[in-house]
Predict the structure of Hsp20/alpha crystallin family protein.
Amino acid sequence: MTMLALHRRGGETYPAREFEDVYDRLGQLMNAALGEFVEDGRMGAWMPMADISETEESYVVEIDVPGASKNQIDVQLSERELIVTGEIDEQERERRHRKMRRTGRFELRAMLPGDVDADRVDAHLCDGVLTITIPKAAAAKPRHIEVSV
């Protein structure tokens, strides 16, 4: 069993820092196990958190990319596959106490459930959330069918 070193602050024992270090190391291990690979000394792409919803007219994809600018994001649509890639630069800090927000290359791939109108896609970045509105193709929209007697 490994004992955690206890840090002292003002004469009091302070174990929280060691727990934070263990938590950070566990997070790195989980990232490696769940798909982040090291290639040529660089960390592989990570997948940002995203929600995909549907209205009668379109599919709406909201992707969390805090710290990214529009110049750092590339959005592509190939038939029904949405591909969003980019890179968020890590900001230099004089003293960093904890790092939980991701930086580096990211990639999100999502297959949309129906046909889309690729010519009318809109992408908007506001407050760290990229919102992509993808109109449905006319054939994919629900149609009212009159019932006859």
Q: What stands out?
A: The chain has a mean pLDDT of 80.
